[in-house]
Specification:
The chain is mainly β. It has a single domain, classed as Sandwich (Immunoglobulin-like), CATH 2.60.40.10. About 0% of the residues lie in helices and about 45% in strands. The strands form two sheets. Strands 1, 2, 5, 6 and 7 form a five-stranded antiparallel beta sheet that branches. A hairpin with a 7-residue loop joins strand 8 and strand 9. It is globular. InterPro entries: Ig-like_dom, Ig-like_dom_sf, Ig-like_fold, Ig/MHC_CS, Ig_C1-set, MHC_class-I_related. One of its GO terms (cellular component) is external side of plasma membrane. This is Ig-like domain-containing protein.
């Protein structure tokens, strides 16, 4: 059997990215938290500070990493012009306050259309 590698809690590393959607009109916002332990973690995608309901999000579920830590990824399809309204918010027992990452707009998007 495998011994549990983590004895102490580990902070999540949080990454945000933007992917192309199948539709040229839309983009997919992705939020990934990885390397955390224990596995209890809350992740929200917020629009104008309001959580987007889970049924509107795509989640790949909580997954184990090879080192005994965990990862969680959620994504949402949006219009590119609305990207700056969204944030990824992560809460974990190792964080003294929620970790908030904004997607913002690319410089390329300013003033277009």
């Amino acid at each position: 059997f495998k011994a549990l590698i983590f004895i102490h809690a580990a902070r999540p590393e949080v990454y945000s990215s933007v992917k192309a959607s199948g539709s040229s009109e839309q983009q997919i916002l992705v939020c990934l938290a990885t390397g955390f332990y224990p596995k209890q973690l809350q992740m929200e995608i917020r629009r104008h500070q309001t959580p987007v309901p889970d049924e509107q999000l795509t989640s790949h579920g909580l997954r184990p990493n090879a080192d005994g830590s965990f990862q969680l990824m959620k994504s949402l399809q949006i219009l590119p012009s609305e990207r700056s309204h969204y944030q990824c918010v992560v809460k974990h027992q190792t964080l003294t306050e929620p970790l908030i990452i904004s997607w913002g707009n690319d410089d390329d998007d300013k003033g277009s259309k």
